[in-house]
Amino acid sequence: MTPYRLPYPVPGVIWASLPIPALLIGPDMRVFEVNPAGEIFLNVSSKSLMGQPAFDRLAIDAPIEEAFARARANQSPIFINDVDVSTGERAPIQCNIQIAPMHDNSDYIMLLIAPRDIADRLGRSMSVKSAAKSAIGMAEMLAHEIKNPLAGISGAAQLISMNANAEDRELTDLIVEETRRIVKLLDQVEQFGNLRKPDRRAVNIHDALDRARKSALVGFAAHMTIVEDYDPSLPPTFADPDQLMQVFLNLIKNAAEACRTTGSTIRLRTYYDLSLRLRRKNGGPSVLPLNIEIIDDGPGLPPEIATDIFEPFVSGRENGTGLGLALVSKIISDHEGWVQVDSVPGRTVFRVSLPVAPKKMEAD
User: Half-sphere exposure of residue 309, counting CA atoms within 13 Å on the CB side?
Assistant: First the structure.
């Protein structure tokens, strides 16, 4: 069998720097080259993939062989948008596909795969972060301005009740009760607005998860089963331990409130995955390999709010404030991480992705 080798060199630096999965496919539809982003996307090494039939590993929901033939015949690129792509090891994700014949040898086709899933969610993440900042300023102002007159209203109602008959006292008691409820809500708003900057250090993810799990089981999740599915080999992350515990507690509480029936299960899963990379504020790359999933078997998010669930004041529950998940989003953003959700009836997954602590901190 003839060894699979390129008949011409590919500029190594450019090839390795491509931020999206790229494969070079020969006339017999076998893989001749794959870039590092492609290795991560396919979860296979370049060495293992070389010379293998491309579409044994990659499933594209489009007439791909016909597209390859047209690209070769017309000597022009072909673009296929919003197509499902699967590697056989995970659910299909929507991607934009680009197919282009190599300029000096049209038998060889460059296949570029641009996952829309991550790009779309990152765009939403940036808008959520901006909205959260605006909401924080409004929350601080409203909480301060509203609590003062509420105290006066409550005090006046209590004074009136001292000389009121039984029927009127019912009304004054209602006023006092409702003002206390609003003050409690404003306390939550103030908590959202006054969050301090994270005091980051090397933190064991499982310690923070365990604190949140124990707190949940003696409170709002007492009627549920919480299953641990941890990867014990995970290195520490770089985080504020109290804020990280608050994130996990909020997500577990969200899952518990979604599953109101006794006997429901929440699964806490951790794993290592190098596929998610973001850009830091200073422009450098950031890898987020530490993944934490909070999975529930509830009815799922209402479709009309699923894409906006991390926005402030968006809630899927009656009488919900819509601040819990916005707070989660803000904390994770402050930690240079990422949070996302996938939800269908019977399975909702909140996924938090975080960086590894710097080596020096791990040693400390």
Answer: 22
